[in-house]
Amino acid sequence: MSIEVRVPTLGESVTEATVATWFKKPGDSVAADEMLCELETDKVTVEVPAPSAGVLGEIVAAEGVTVGVDALLATIGEGAGTAAAPAAAPAATSAAAASVDVMVPSLGESVTEATVASWFKQVGDTVAADEMLCELETDKVSVEVPAPAAGVLTEIVAPEGTTVDATAKLAVIGGAGAVAAPTAAQNPAAAVASGKDVEDAPSAKVMMAQAGMAEGTVQGTGRDGRVMKHDVQAAMAAPKPAAAPAPAPIPAAAKAPADNAGREERVKMTRLRQTIAKRLKDSQNTAAMLTTYNEVDMTETMALRKEYKDLFEKKHGVRLGFMSFFTKACCHALKEVPEVNAEIDGTDIVYKNYVNMGIAAGTPTGLVVPVINDADSMSFATIEKAIAEKGRKARDGKLSMDEMQGGTFTISNGGVYGSLMSSPILNPPQSGILGMHKIQDRPMAINGQVVIRPMMYLALSYDHRIVDGKGAVTFLVRVKEALEDPRRLLMDL
Predict the structure, then answer these.
(1) Residue 279 falls within a domain, yes or no?
(2) In the annotation, is 468 catalytic?
(3) Which residue range(s) make up the domain with 341?
(4) Is 188 exposed, middle or buried (CB count within 10 Å of its CB: 0-12, 13-18, 19+)?
(5) Which of 33, 165, 197, 468 does the annotation list as catalytic?
(6) Region (Disordered): which ranges (predicted)?
(7) Are 74 and 145 in contact (CB under 8 A)?
């Protein structure tokens, strides 16, 4: 009797993930709750534990494969001999030469196709069980497909660039004595130009391209020296050697004519970046989005924070930042203008009598929005602890899908990057998003006198289908009032 290993729940709006790494191979003994593989969605990494002890039998979804929720990943058999074929079977002598099909794994209920991005092996190559064969791309993730068994790659059915459906065959692996099929389906482009036997992990290649690191400059720790994502992160964190003296500048007259083509680099957009682009554009196309602006004098909030930050950190074990003030101010304003915290569902308006606050955060792989549930009922300390925890998980890529679902309103802080003013884009199906910006000293007229004050521009983007201009302006004014006199938050004014 075998136990099925299936994809766990990925969140209410996430229907697929990519099998990033298998930690075990067929025939290995596994303990209950031992990590079998790692899945990647467009934002987080999920580890899949063994549901029971036994022997890992068949790996149905190889590395690089895109799978849907509850899709079959592998099977676990009972006892040490589960994975082995009966020794007395007459066909045992030909088992080594039997062929195994490499299939596209389950892509999820809403995903019907993927693109073969690259082949790491060529027809005729010997492959080990679980060795990476190719990489597939969907609209959200890249999936590495491992070999389901050891043998010889005898046929590549879907070359690079081919779009395949969820049930398509990618290749055929024969036994040790198998002969390669005719090379008509073979993809010569799979050979690596750098002369390496295997390609680097796609996530590592993207990260190297973004960091401007040349191929071959990072030492790989993966199979056969393959460069993995953590190798690039380690190389980026390593101390940089002292730069050599710059050569003398070449006189302008001696320079050759510029060859723009040779100075450009073309990198294919990752599926994640394509998805982010699509969702943001869909938001603009769907909602009647409008932005209203105001500015806030941060003098009182900064003074209150300065006065109590040491005591606050000593008592609560977390720093007192500005985000808790803004979160509190927004929760206060949303009570007065509930349509900013609502959403449209068909011809209905769904009002939320709670605030699940999304805090937008930039990461090396893209924008994520972890959600702080029931922020309206939290204290300053609880909010700061939640923000710190979610921010740390976002940077480490450890956010779960549940932690990014169910937001009712979002705050985006472009000020940490130096932005003075911007118009944030809605995070559907939400109807409002507040944009924070850089605090900058500016001359202001106060009681007939020109004084220097720390000012911040605020921007509220809202869905004009549900939020009228009066409501949007009222919301922003209430946020401004709460920040300019934080005592109002204590008095619920």
Answers:
(1) no
(2) yes
(3) 288-491
(4) exposed
(5) 468
(6) 242-264
(7) no
